[in-house]
Amino acid sequence: MLLGLVLSGSSNSIRTSVESVVGTGLVPVVVAYVLTIATLSELLHLPFAFYQGVILERRYGLSRETTGRWLADHIKAAAIVLACLTAAGLIVTMLLRSTPTHWWIFASIGVAAMLVLLARFAPVLLLPLFYDMRPLEREELRAKLIALAAKAGTPVLGVFEWRLGDRTTRANAALVGIGRTRRILVSDTLLDAHSDQEIETVFAHELAHHVYGDIWSALALEAALITLGCYAADYVLATFAVSVGLDGKADIAGLPLVVLAGGAVSLVLRPLTNALSRAHERRADRYALETTRNSAAFISAMKRLAATNRAEERPSRFVELLFHSHPTTAARIEAAKAWDQRAT
Prior knowledge:
With 344 residues, this protein is mostly helical. 73% of the residues lie in helices and 5% in strands. It has a 4-stranded mixed beta sheet with strand order 1-2-4-3.
């Protein structure tokens, strides 16, 4: 009811604000401002990204790509992010001018909708920009994976070989997309180093996230965090805009405050979101074990993945709580052994 009143009461003011922003020539100003801030941020971030994505990956034998290819992909991804940030900057500016009291509600709804669209269309629009994917030619394995998906009531478009081997030694598998874009991806590095039974257990784990609706719960959690972040940004703008020299909430110079306030909320709540993610991953492991009834394959797959991806099997509890979205490899193996004892 309240949201309906807000939506109906603000529609005319939003339309007026859009006309005002476009008519006064504010669009190029906002675009230039966002581009400048984003470019400066990217220049500061680039050395760290290069160190992490190139130097460290090569040091541990994980990277196979040239510096030029890494840079081309990085620029491509930065361009996509920049386009999204520019659109977000324009939308937030118009919302702040049209409905300064409730702008954060509309912004949250817009971002949540964008997340759903990305989850649905990223496999067909974004992933092909970076990776080569082709139908899996191993017919027996393809049939087994499709059968697992069908048994779980999760129809898929197909099974695709995800070409990672020319870039990295890391192995991975995923079930991506929503509805008609849902497809199974199995990296060529996983196909080369793992048996069909191991790949089945890895896929069964990924399948569990769709069976239990983890994709939607993750989107809901992200939407909640974005809403809290936008509300925090609104509070910061209302409290500090004048004191830091801004000309009210709608001053485009305040956009960095919006980003910082939203980022602070996400950072503070990161341990909580990681804990929820680890719970989902443990449940997905159990589903994989119960579906395949093959704890030996699951355990060997976890060991191979840890070795291939250079994962730390037993990080400190502090590091796990703060940074890990998955249980440790050691914990997953111990849980599989415990399940095997109960099953027998």
